Amino acid sequence: MTDLALCSATELAQRLRRREMSAVELLQHHLQRVERLNPALNAVVVLDAERALVRAREADAALARGVCWGPLHGLPMTVKEAFDVTALPTTWGFDAQRGNVATANAVSVQRLLDAGALIFGKTNLPVAMADWQTFNPVYGTTNNPWDTGRTPGGSSGGSAAALAAGLSALELGSDIGASIRNPAHYCGVWGHKPTWGVVPQQGHQLPGMECVDTIDIGAAGPMARSAHDLSLAMDVLAAPLSAFGALGWQPAAWRDAGLPASRLRVAVVADDALAEVDSTVRAQFHALVDFLRRSGVTVGESERPVDSAETWRTYVPLVRAALIGHASDEEHLQAVAEAAKWPADSMEFAAMHWRGRSLSHRDWLRLDEVRSKLRRQWAAFFERWDLLICPVATTPAFRHNQSGWRWERMIPVNGAEQPSTTSLFWAGYTNLCGLPATAVPLGLSPEGLPIGAQVCGPVFADPVCLRFARWLEAEYRAFVPPPMAA
């Protein structure tokens, strides 16, 4: 019999509304799993059990009166530590921010609460949300539930680990460098990085920092054990603020009818010379392509939407420049000095990193011009294809390696060593232009590690990505829990 905590959030919410169980019972069940499994994972790093239990009792009393708060009524969930929750710490993993306690909820957190969710804790992340490993001096290291000697990914690594282990029914993450998609891939769960601007990020910043909606590469979005849960969460999260009213966004579109998935035109890119993908990952892509063709899907494997090198050398400096306004004078001078050590046209990751960290406004504008051109190329590509499926990373989850700069940490790919930062190519492939992408599980590697893919679409085609992910879940692969959680 499937443990309640491994059911989808959609099923749990329905069972709560039918009063087949109480919100208190379901919350207590999750808290017991946290007590039992979290010591080995360190995924849930802030607990708010007492307030959550009070709210669970209120949820049960409301439902007994015939009052439903919303689609998430009584559902226990956690959120990434970077999102403000009143009276809880928001540190981003910085030791200096240990005393930062939120005085208001983030907009997305408030929307989840207004829809009836019970937020009982927060999950771990790397310092500054800037790593595909989840460790920091405040909360320590989070482990992958499939192999505790490996990373769960980042930066929403605690989120993905908690979901895979059944510690939380639903999660709220954020993504600027695959920080939703990468942990989903490493832990075998689902995640959706929305089109930029669809989910407000107010309350997802440290003191002295204005809203990170200004970082027009990143996005906040849901993570879950089911693609149906992603759609459920997006119904709650996607209503625009007035600042985005001109976009004419219609939240009801998340459940569009549209063409059946088998009628869609799907391009598949499984490898790239700039970011060689391990054979274990490519094998899962070959199996997926075979399935899609058997199902009648129109599949193309030879077309590339944009120039890989142009995308890579534009994405890395822009993503590294995203937060340089908050760097100290000393940090800025160091970045300028480090950048000067490299040829101006070097595509070594370290060179692009330091160029981004010391970017002038003039150079930023030049890169933005390139990005504008790439947007037009993506738009032309999506006139011919409905979706693109590509890797999230070059390998399954790698072993903990926390020494040195990220580009100095090597991982094995097809028998050779590859800098761990090379995988970021697949993060920026669509992220550079703010496109939506849904991470979906495909299967397991020979070592028993999850392997996933990202289903990408044109701007505001989030509903199409999500609908295709729901179809894949039903027809190809549903959630499989790690042995420790079953």
Structural class: alpha/beta
Q: Biggest β-sheet: count, sense, barrel?
A: 11 strands, mixed
Q: How are the strands of the largest sheet arranged?
A: 1-3-2-6-8-7-14-15-11-9-10
Number of strands: 15
Helices, by number, come to 14
Low-confidence runs (pLDDT<50, min 5 residues)?
A: 242-249
> In percent, how helical is the residue content?
25-40%
Can you write the helix and strand succession as a string? HHEHEHEEEHEHEEHEHEHHHHEEEHEEH
Rg over C-alpha atoms, rounded to the nearest angstrom: 21 Å
Q: Which range does the strand content fall in?
A: 5-15%
- Distance from N terminus to C terminus (CA atoms, Å) equals 10 Å
Multimerization status: single chain
Shape: globular
Average pLDDT, rounded to a whole number, is 94
Q: Which SSEs are present, and which pair or pack?
A:
Elements: H1 9-17, H2 23-41, E1 44-47, H3 49-64, E2 76-80, H4 107-114, E3 118-123, E4 135-136, E5 140-141, H5 157-164, E6 171-175, H6 181-187, E7 190-193, E8 219-224, H7 227-237, E9 265-268, H8 279-294, E10 298-300, H9 308-321, H10 329-339, H11 349-357, H12 361-384, E11 387-390, E12 410-413, E13 416-419, H13 424-431, E14 437-444, E15 450-456, H14 462-475
Parallel strand pairs: 2-3, 2-6, 9-10, 9-11
Antiparallel strand pairs: 1-3, 4-5, 6-8, 7-8, 7-14, 11-15, 12-13, 14-15
Helix pairs in contact: 2-3, 5-6, 7-14, 9-11, 9-12, 9-13, 10-11
